[in-house]
Amino acid sequence: MGNIKRLAVLTSGGDAPGMNACIRAVLLTANACNIDVIGFKHGFNGLLEQEFQTLHPHHVDNIIQRGGTILKSARCPAMEQPDGPVKAAAILDQLNIDALIVIGGDGSFRGTMAISKHYRGQLIGVPGTIDNDVDGTDTTIGFATAIDTALDAIDKIRDTADAFERIFLVELMGRHSGYLSLAAGIAGGAEQIICPEFGKLDADNLNTIITPIKHAQLLKGKTSYLIVVAEHSYPGGVTALAEALTMAIGIECRACILGHIQRGGSPVGADRILATKLGAFAVEQLLQGANLVMAGEVDGEARLYPLAKTGERAKAIDPFLVRWQQQIGSF
Ligand code: ATP
Q1: Tens of pLDDT along 111-141?
Q2: Which residues have CB under 6 Å of ligand 1?
Q3: Is the pLDDT at 49 greater than 80, yes or no?
Q4: Gap from CA of 79 to ligand 1 centroid (Å)
Q5: 195: which of 131, 132, 230, 266 fits an S-S bond (Cβ 3.0–4.6 Å)?
Q6: Nearest atom, ligand 1, residue 311 CA
Q7: 11, 122: one domain
């Protein structure tokens, strides 16, 4: 059994709906085990700057339904300097922190791994990112909410696309992965989905997109046509892609970038449950001695996964849905 008296938690990287629910679960579980909890503010910045607060149950009252994170999140370039992780570990020791829980994405877990080289305590990650690009868990906290947020926008864009008989390209977040675009595109009935996993797209192979559009218009008389595009899928982004398509097919193509809207909002039930489960599981596993692992969920079960492997991109986007989408896109 790990002998943990004082635990720290922070949220890092892009914020994700459900991070608050996770902080709440960590605090309530830890307090039930007589463990004190402090929260560092603004991701790793609060750790390096010693900006933190002791968390009490009243701090997590009424937050399970709130988007964002009460601890605030941020990127922290100082952590990527050679002395950043050294300083972070020294501060954790100085503050008598026995274990640190990092809620974030694979970048945040790289930072956590970097601290481990200098820290005597335990480190555990909990996957919180709308991108779902973390190995060792079927979904990340925030992903389910982001799908619904994107879907709400896609459904509305579909109405105006239909009324004006235009082609709309909707850009979704995802960093360098297409989980969100595939999921929201499928659920929104998108005619095409473009994401990095489908191979390189540039001006030289635009025909792979144009041919299905022409096919759809000539043979089916489609009045609206919606393409969901993951960010970083085309040089210059979705606006450049819309311009290139307009030039190539002579029909107005409009780009719509959803941007940070996708990060906000009240977490859906699935994210609140996942966040609660993984936050509580992380604390329980720390007490069992877990270290340098991530608390994920696979096939409905809470599982540990090596933190060092979370960013290997071994988790494929759903091959069944990819195949199906590519089949119907070509008809
Ligand atoms: P999301 O993808 O949802 O934005 P993320 O956790 O992957 O989440 P990143 O911006 O990649 O987001 O990383 C968050 C922070 O983790 C960085 O700002 C930095 O402080 C830290 N970090 C990332 N990579 C490293 C590294 N190699 N060494 C030390 N710290 C790192």
Answers
A1: 999 999 999 999 999 999 999 999 999 999 9
A2: 12-14, 44, 75-76, 79-80, 85, 104-108, 110-111, 114, 129, 131, 175
A3: yes
A4: 9
A5: 230
A6: 7
A7: yes
Number of residues that make up the chain: 331
Considering the domain architecture, whether residues 27 and 152 belong to the same structural domain is answered as no
Pairing of strands 6-11, 192-194: unpaired
Q: Which domain holds residue 187?
A: 145-263
Compute, in angstroms, the gap from residue 160 CA to the centroid of ligand 1: 38
In this structure, the residue with its CA closest to atom 27 of ligand 1 is: 110
| DSSP helix/strand/coil, 6 | strand
Q: Are residues 82 and 170 in the same domain?
A: no
Q: Is 117 exposed, middle or buried (0-12, 13-18, 19+ CB in 10 A)?
A: exposed
Q: 117 near 92, Cβ under 8 Å?
A: no
What number does the ligand 1 atom closest to the CA of 131 have? Answer: 3
CATH assignment of the domain containing 79? 3.40.50.450
Assigned domain for 161 exists: yes
Catalytic residue among 15, 98, 106, 131: 131
Report the domain count for the chain.
2
Which residue's CA is the nearest one to ligand 1's atom 13?
107
CA of 330 to the centre of ligand 1 (A): 38
pLDDT in tens, 245-284: 999 988 889 999 999 999 999 999 999 999 999 999 999 9
User: Of all atoms in ligand 1, which is nearest to the CA of residue 75?
Assistant: 18
Instruction: List the residue whose alpha carbon is closest to atom 10 of ligand 1.
Output: 13
- For residues 17 and 135, state if they share a domain: yes
What separation in Å is there between the alpha carbon of 133 and the centre of ligand 1? Answer: 13
Quick check: helix, strand or coil at residue 255? strand
Q: What is the distance of C-alpha 287 from the center of its chain?
A: 27
- The amino acid at residue 3 is N
164 and 243 in a common domain: yes
Mean pLDDT throughout 207-222? 79
Quick one: 304 and 255 in the same domain? no
Q: Per-residue pLDDT for 189 more than 70?
A: yes
As a whole number of angstroms, the distance between CA 76 and CA 148 comes to 29
